[in-house]
Design a protein that fits this description.
The protein is α+β, with helices and mostly antiparallel strands. Helix content is 38%, strand content 11%.
């Protein structure tokens, strides 16, 4: 494995877009996410280097530590603003600025929109330990793409290697140009992760230029599918290698969660 860098805190904004009538977008959920935020970064095409100018929204993802009553008790948050539906457990705050336009929740994000999701650290950890490639990427984002990171978030990023294992990393996608590009990107990043313990962001050349050419529709579908298949086969060989841990370091993650929550609760009493 490559040496693990030691990232530090990055001061920045914890402010999130206002609540909305969506199950994970109540004002109470927003307040929990803002006050307990430990990490917030850009993800998606922008950080991969595969975006096309004028066509992409901005995707952000982060983690927060919720108050003790949401962990050790039965506290819940309203089901969006208005609170007419039954309350829900706090697992994340999710907000898309595209919802603010006429059409609301039915709108798809476009150029200039912000899509942000701040997970409970416990939910994020469950997804990351299962090998979810989307959530794992927050550990490898370069500092200039970090919106906010405190001490707990920095410790987590410095221990990204503890999440590397032979668990499945490739997601299934459709075959329009954008999804085909992302399918190949996931395969290439999975190969790098299992080979080095890290993911380089943005995607290094020559892969980045090739992925962008797929996104622009410049590669025939048969060629792209062959590349995806090849990446999947290489990833499968790496996944079965005895040099790669069979499981992530769940003990360290459990300890980090316990220490981080206890410190946060101690500061907020």
């Amino acid at each position: 494995m490559m040496p693990v860098p030691s990232p530090g805190p990055v001061p920045g904004s914890t402010v999130l877009p206002a609540g909305f009538p969506h199950p994970h977008a109540s004002e109470e959920a927003r307040e929990i996410a803002e006050k307990g935020m430990i990490l917030r970064v850009q993800v998606g095409s922008g950080v991969h280097g595969t975006s096309i100018t004028g066509q992409d929204d901005r995707d952000e993802m982060g983690l927060c530590l919720e108050p003790p009553q949401f962990v050790t008790g039965l506290a819940r948050v309203p089901d969006g603003t208005g609170g007419l539906a039954p309350s829900v457990r706090f697992e994340q705050y999710e907000r898309h600025t595209a919802w603010d336009r006429l059409g609301g929740l039915a709108n798809r994000s476009g150029a200039g929109d912000l899509d942000v999701i701040i997970y409970s650290a416990r939910k994020w950890a469950r997804l990351a330990l299962a090998g979810n490639p989307t959530v794992l990427l927050v550990l490898f984002v370069p500092d200039h793409e970090v919106v906010f990171r405190d001490e707990a978030g920095a410790e987590l990023a410095a221990n990204a290697h503890r999440f590397v294992s032979r668990l499945e990393l490739v997601a299934a996608h459709g075959y329009d140009t954008k999804y085909a590009m992302h399918a190949l990107r996931l395969g290439l990043q999975g190969i790098e992760l299992l080979s080095t313990g890290r993911i380089t962001l943005p995607v290094p050349e020559p892969h980045r230029a090739y992925l962008r050419s797929i996104r622009r529709g410049e590669r025939p579908l048969e060629e792209v599918l062959d590349a995806i298949t090849d990446a999947g086969e290489r990833l499968a060989r790496l996944r079965d290698s005895p040099a790669i841990a069979g499981q992530p370091d769940r003990g360290w993650v459990d300890d980090w969660l316990h220490r981080s929550y206890m410190r946060f609760w101690g500061r907020t009493r």
